[in-house]
Design goal:
With about 170 residues, this protein is mostly helical. About 45% of the residues lie in helices and about 10% in strands. Helix 4 crosses helix 5.
Length: about 170
């Protein structure tokens, strides 16, 4: 519109009366004046190869860190074990733990359950005994349920009522 290519801007310093090459020279001269003597030019020499490899290593480390942070603890563990096996050799079977000694909470309760707990029983409490005692404390001990189906064989069973049985009135 002002004869310089058909585009106009309300924010330009241009009044349409100057040559664009003259403004470019003026801008370049201002840049030279404002440049500090210890500053390097806009286009320095090509960087050294070691600087480039150092930057690449930093970028790769940053990417690895971001990848590890995005994983949960178990996935991170599996990755580290896999990397260890790749580097040092071996098999995944060496790292699998044996499930033969595993016990559920129910197994622990069965082994350490007592129908009646006394104050003397609370001495030397192990973790298993504490679990059994907590379960005992939660039971409703007003009435017990007895199984006398084998009383002729001198076998009988007692147990405390559970919360559902108390609510239902059993």
């Amino acid at each position: 519109i002002h004869g310089s290519g058909g585009y106009d801007s309300d924010f330009s310093d241009d009044n349409g009366d100057g040559d664009s090459s003259e403004k470019a020279r003026e801008r370049k001269r201002e840049g030279e004046i404002l440049q500090k003597p210890f500053e390097k030019g806009r286009h320095p020499k090509v960087a050294h190869r070691s600087l480039h490899s150092c930057e690449v290593d930093r970028e790769e480390a940053r990417n690895r860190r971001a990848h590890l942070i995005s994983m949960n603890a178990f996935e991170r563990h599996k990755k580290f074990v896999g990397d260890y096996i790749l580097y040092y050799g071996g098999q995944m079977a060496d790292f699998r733990r044996s499930a033969a000694k595993d016990k559920t909470d129910q197994d622990v309760l069965r082994e350490n359950h007592r129908f009646l707990w006394r104050d003397e029983d609370e001495e030397d409490m192990t973790w298993e005994k504490e679990v059994a005692k907590k379960y005992y404390d939660k039971l409703f001990k007003e009435y017990c349920i007895a199984d006398l189906s084998r009383y002729k064989e001198n076998k009988f069973g007692f147990r405390w009522r559970t919360e559902n049985e108390v609510v239902s009135g059993k």
